[in-house]
Amino acid sequence: MSKILFVVGEPGVGKSTLLGTAFEGFGRAEVDHLKAGGPMRELLWDGSRLFGCELGRRLGKHPEGYPGTDTMSMTAITGVDEWLRAGADDLDVIALEGTRLMNKRFVNAALAGDHQLMIFYLYGPQIARARRDERGSNQNSQWLKGRQTAASNFYQLCDRLASERTQLRSLDGVRGGIGTHVLPAHREVEDNARFLLAMAGLARPRLPLV
Fold this sequence. Notes:
Elements: E1 3-8, H1 15-22, E2 27-30, H2 33-36, E3 41-46, E4 49-55, H3 76-85, E5 93-97, H4 104-112, E6 116-123, H5 125-134, H6 141-172, E7 177-184, H7 189-199
Parallel strand pairs: 1-5, 1-6, 4-5, 6-7
Antiparallel strand pairs: 2-3, 3-4
Helix pairs in contact: 1-7, 3-4
């Protein structure tokens, strides 16, 4: 069973920055998923120990400012679904951010694979607006509103399922589960990153002394 750390939120709120900060200092390596099977992902190492992966791409080539699951195909959920249900390579941690996999099929696959799904809703409309202005974003207002609504709806869906799942577990011993957390975007990214890692049972690796 893996712990799945899924960071959601509106465009520009800092999702990619949060995951990048959380896992900096850990080793990272691309997977040739076309040969190895499974979804596009990068492996995460703590010293010599392989402990997890991030879905999508952060290394190598990708559109500037759009790493993570935004680098995956529009049909990526099909491969991710199968991979999660099959055990996700027995990794301890799976991290992801973005909207590509923000749907109920992903949630169902995570639960079917007996994984622990943790949703982190990075919230801060004013912060997101300021960051979009700073990088000169010209995203269509209707599209942007749609992405904001989608993130909010997905979080509310998971929050509702979390309550239902807790009740089922107490009654029927259901495995797997969902946890939901709101992270304020105005808080220092280092603080949010430490919280995210703590929820995954991880500590940032010690950097070598210079």
